[in-house]
Amino acid sequence: MSLRFIGIDPNTGQSESPTVWVDDTKGEIIIQGWKPDPATEAECAATEIPGHATGIPDTEQVVRVPARMAHILREACDAAERAQLR
């Protein structure tokens, strides 16, 4: 795995640090965020998506990141797309 740091929450302190990386080899975005509260996780799990089962598989996790990180997520998406085009 070849992780490339993209950015960290600009308002991060010493203990909480939502962070974004890109795996250039796999073309994947890795996100570290806050664990959701049970109500948020339940709402995500219950949301109906046309043509798709509801629920969150055991191999997946809902994470929360602040909206102020949108520019960092966009940068990660662009980097992941560039990696896949090689």
Question: Can you tag this structure with a few keywords?
Answer:
86 residues, alpha+beta, 3-stranded antiparallel β-sheet, 2 helices, 3 strands
Give your account of this protein's structure.
The protein has 86 residues and is of the alpha+beta class. It has one domain. 28% of the residues lie in helices and 19% in strands. The protein has 2 helices and 3 strands. The protein has helices at residues 38-46, 70-84, and strands at residues 3-8, 19-23, 28-32. A 3-stranded antiparallel sheet has the order 1-2-3, with helices on one face. The longest helix has 15 residues, at 70-84. The two termini are 16 Å apart. The mean pLDDT is 89.
In short, what is this structure?
With 86 residues, the chain is an alpha+beta fold. The protein has helices at 38-46, 70-84; strands spanning 3-8, 19-23, 28-32.
H-E string? EEEHH
Q: Which class best fits the helix and strand makeup?
A: alpha+beta
- Assembly state: single chain
Roughly what fraction of the amino acids lie in strands? 15-25%
What does the average pLDDT come to? 89
Number of helices, where a helix is a run of at least 4 consecutive DSSP H or I residues: 2
Query: Roughly how many Å apart are the termini?
Result: 16 Å
Strand order in the sheet with the most strands: 1-2-3
